[in-house]
Amino acid sequence: MLEIAVCDDDIADLECAVNMLHKIFTSQKIAYHIEKFMSANQMLENISRIDIGILDISMEELNGIKLGRKLKEKFPDVKLVYITSYEEYCMQVINEVHAFSFLCKPLEYDKLELQILELLNQLPDAIVEKNFYKVTDSNGKGYLSIKLKLRDILYFEYIKRSRKVLIALSDITYEYDCIFEKLVEELQPYDFVVNCRGNLVNLRHIEKIKGFIIYMDNGKELQIAQRRSNDFREEVNKFLQRNS
Q1: Phi-psi region of 166 (alpha: psi -120 to 50; beta: other; left: phi over 0)
Q2: Predicted local confidence at residue 90, as pLDDT
Q3: What's the pTM value of the predicted model, to 2 decimals?
Q4: Do 88 and 14 sit in the same domain of this protein?
Q5: What is the distance between the alpha carbons of residues 96 and 69, in angstroms, rounded to a whole number?
Q6: Same domain for 11 and 65?
Q7: What residue numbers bound the domain in which 134 lies?
Q8: Separation of CA 92 from chain center
Q9: Are 178 and 187 in contact (CB under 8 A)?
Q10: 131 forms bridges with which residues in the sheet?
Q11: Structural domain ending residue among the three candidates 104, 126, 148
Q12: Which residues carry this modification: 4-aspartylphosphate (predicted)?
């Protein structure tokens, strides 16, 4: 899961940036968590992991350039994007802090989205991929192995008659040999949860839940087993809290 931190001592600008980031990462179906801070010192005291930092430059307590230096010392791989009302800071943040980019206030969604998408291309761990072996697709074509992005998989389903596991994407399905219990254990850190016996669903692709029916974002409907309902809903709520 990507850890993003936003720091700006102007509450309106802070909320604006956070809301835009939620929209961007949700649209990309990437697991993420955002922390927001109005103080550079508060951020430094409370943050234990960070992949992306969105920092205002002009802050009274400790400016964003000094904050960036301290973050780089503690987290050498962090990617920094600066937001500022003063374009003259541009070369300073690029030369001194090796910032990924900077954006001028007021923030524009399209420009922020472009910078984030470019940044994600430099973070291979943000888009986790998995190899699947001895696979057959829904058109009958066989593969010795294929590599799929976990974020693109809607759900897995154990097919009892063939003793294979179906991989469902929005536009195609695959089947392959697999021990379902091991798959469940392997994908638990990536927000895949068992909704009923032999079903493992990607929480990112749930559009809504009504009763014991899960409505996926591609129109597919999946069942929730009654005995799993409480645990499943609890995992969904945890996921939503992490990504809100």
Answers
A1: beta
A2: 55
A3: 0.57
A4: yes
A5: 8
A6: yes
A7: 129-242
A8: 30
A9: no
A10: 147
A11: 126
A12: 56
